[in-house]
């Protein structure tokens, strides 16, 4: 169950990284000045790389869990979900500030990427928590 979750995180991280790097390459080849797209791509690539490294490191240390360690894992996943909600909220504020107040597209690109990345991580963790608590 935990291995499946880590593989999902790895797939999301690699996909995010490839998407970000692909956008950066496409923007550089075209010579386009698009700060929203460029900063979106940079943040997606970096956050995808970090998520991939996290998943690979955690996959290496997997072992069977007893009841107490399963409860700790559930608490860690819930804590991660709280952090993702705060990331989502902060990124939404950054997006709004970037668009409405500062009129800066680079801030908007960073905000959009963080909202997207945090939202997907929240959904993946929520699905994992549902499997953990039901034992499925």
List the helices and strands and how they pair.
Layout: H1 2-30, H2 35-60, H3 67-101, H4 105-134
Helix pairs in contact: 1-2, 1-4, 2-4, 3-4
Strand % is under 5%
* Overall 3D form: elongated
Count of separate structural domains = 1
Largest sheet: none
Low-confidence stretches: none
- The helix count comes to 4
CA radius of gyration is 17 Å
Structural class: mainly alpha
Secondary structure: number of strands: 0
Helical content stands at over 70%
- Straight-line distance between termini: 8 Å
In N-to-C order, the SSE pattern is: HHHH
Mean pLDDT score: 91
How would you portray this structure in words?
With 136 residues, this protein is an all-alpha fold. The protein has one domain. It has four helices and no strands. Helix 1 packs antiparallel against helix 4, helix 2 packs parallel to helix 4 and helix 3 runs antiparallel to helix 4.
């Amino acid at each position: 169950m935990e291995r499946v979750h880590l593989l999902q995180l790895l797939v999301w991280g690699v996909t995010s990284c490839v998407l970000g790097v692909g956008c950066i390459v496409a923007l550089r080849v075209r010579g386009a000045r698009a700060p929203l797209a460029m900063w979106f791509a940079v943040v997606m690539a970096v956050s995808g790389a970090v998520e991939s490294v996290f998943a690979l490191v955690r996959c290496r240390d997997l072992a069977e869990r007893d009841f107490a360690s399963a409860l700790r894992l559930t608490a860690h996943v819930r804590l991660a979900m709280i952090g993702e909600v705060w990331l989502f909220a902060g990124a939404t504020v950054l997006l709004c500030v970037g668009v409405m107040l500062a009129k800066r597209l680079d801030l908007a690109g960073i905000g959009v990427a963080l909202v997207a990345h945090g939202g997907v991580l929240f959904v993946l963790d929520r699905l994992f928590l549902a499997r953990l608590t039901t034992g499925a």
